[in-house]
Specification:
There is one protein chain. The chain is mostly helical. The strands form two sheets. The protein has a two-stranded antiparallel ribbon with strand order 1-2. A two-stranded parallel ribbon has the order 3-4. A hairpin with a 5-residue loop joins β1 and β2. α5 runs parallel beside α7 and α6 runs antiparallel to α7. The protein is globular.
């Protein structure tokens, strides 16, 4: 990640911190009143082919002893009512402002993948993860809803994994590599603006 991009991330994060903090407080109250603790969900993600970190989100699903892989229709029954609202407006991702300030991720970049997929597709992620992962990005904006539609058709964890590997990973990687070739602060601002527009539309 370039110095300019890192400075932009820190500056923009500090600028929006009061607003994000206020919204996060409302979310915490809603979680406390409806589903209780734990309020947060931390999952291992990769910021490079060899470096892992803990990605933070507000918890939107019921807790189970073992959980792995991406979320498909096989996990839909575990999404809580308030969790469904948080996911709809991407408010579950507000705690990732902490990950941005730490330098784990950027505002814009490829979504940070699970270790299992990085290990299964090393050639793809060796290229994708040359860019610092982000909260939003070209693939998030242009492919997220189609990915949800594809995974909603699955009825088991195995089918979800098969669809994600065959259809989603290659498509998102192509978009992530387009972003890498055009990356700039101005382009990041455009993508952030489009993400906000989608959230409120």
């Amino acid at each position: 990640m370039t110095v300019t991009k890192r400075l932009f991330d820190i500056g923009f994060a500090l600028l929006i911190l009061p607003v994000v903090g206020g919204i996060a407080l409302v979310v915490l109250v809603a979680l406390a009143l409806t589903q209780g603790r734990p309020f947060f969900y931390a999952a291992e993600r990769m910021r490079s082919p060899t470096e892992a970190f803990r990605l933070w989100k507000f918890r939107t699903m019921t807790v189970v002893a073992a959980d792995s892989g991406v979320s498909g229709a096989d996990k839909a029954g575990r999404i809580t009512p308030v969790g469904r609202v948080l996911r709809r407006f991407r408010l579950d991702e507000l705690p990732q402002l902490w990950n941005i300030l730490r330098g784990d991720i950027s505002f814009v970049g490829p979504r940070p993948p699970l270790r299992a997929y990085v290990e299964r597709f090393p050639d793809i992620y060796a290229e994708v993860l040359k860019s610092r992962p982000g909260v939003t990005g070209l693939a998030s904006i242009h492919y997220h809803r189609h990915e949800e539609w594809l995974l909603a058709r699955s009825r088991s964890a195995e089918e979800t994994d098969r669809i994600y590997c065959r259809r989603c990973i290659p498509a998102k990687a192509r978009l992530d590599l387009i972003y890498a070739r055009q990356a700039s602060v101005c382009f990041d601002l455009r993508l952030i603006g489009r993400t906000i527009a989608r959230m409120v539309s």
